[in-house]
Each structure stands twice: as C-alpha cells, then as structure tokens.
C-alpha cells in the first residue's frame, strides 16, 4: 500500500530559501549589470510551496494583460531537479536590443535570440549561486521556447508539468531607466523538496 508523502516547508526553511535566493539573485544581477552597463533593481525573492496549477499566482511581477514571451530550461543535480522559467514583458525587447548593441531593431527571430541570451545569463548564474550555497552542481538542459507575444495564462498552459506540488522561487528583475521587466521562476519538483530541506536544515544548524 502506497503512503502519501506530505511535502512541506517550515518558516525557518522558507527564510533560508529566501536568503539563498537573495545571494544567487545578486550574483546574477551583478553579471547582467556588468554586461549591459546598467543598474539592476532587485526585489526580495518570493518563496512559496504551491500546487503547479497555481503557478499563475506565483508570477506576481507580471500583469495578466501584458503580452509576454518566455523560455524554460530544465536542471538536475544531486537528486534535485526542476525547471527555470524566464518570462519577459514584450515591451522589454527594444531596450534589451539597444543595450546589447543589436541596433534597436527587433523581429521575432532576433527577439528569440535576445530571449535565449538573457535566459542563459540569468538562469545559469542563478543556478550556480544556489548550487554553490547548497553544495550541488546543477546540469542544465537546452532552453525551450514556451511562447512569444502571448498572455501569461496561455504561456504557462503551454507547459505540461508531470508533478503536482512545486517549491517556487520568484525573482523579478527590473532595470533602472529602461522599460525592462522580467520574471525568473525557479521551480523545484516535489521529489526534490525533501532533499532540499535536508540541505537547508544543515545550513540552519551552523
């Protein structure tokens, strides 16, 4: 007879995940700031244990009326797996193109290139930052386009997750003086949460 395993996190664990995310987010933002020669505005990361079908609620940084584009990238390491989602409001592309010296002219193929470039920088740096603190080496899959110029609900629907609960960490990046708004969402599978909690408990004991 199969037993249902209850997945949960304590307030102390949530605080620890938030602190880990804060450090990782800062490292990723520093990389982006140096690459684009801008000031990146950083919020406090939002950590929630949610049902996957509540994913829309986890993306508080983007309005539902906005047209967005997004990519996802799977990751795995030391028994911990998940997916990273990077979602841009479409008004970001002209400014990103200009900052990356693409000439400010954008079409859908160039936008896709910009999306992949920024996704590689932010997702890679953020996962490295999280992995270094938890002593985990993450391997990343190839980025996959979820959609371009769609509303957020449709973008999320495009992804069919095989798990029900997820530890979701939302990081919303804005760039001072530019109309650039992107949401990075790290989603850890429910199977990974027990392993993550053990690692976080070890940090809390120090």
Automatic annotation (TrEMBL):
Keyword terms, alphabetized: Chemotaxis, Kinase, Transferase
Entry keyword Transferase: yes
Gene Ontology MF terms in the entry: kinase activity
Top-rank lineage group of the source organism: Bacteria
PANTHER family (UniProt xref): FLAGELLAR MOTOR SWITCH PROTEIN FLIN (PTHR43484:SF1), PTHR43484
Name this polypeptide is given: Histidine kinase
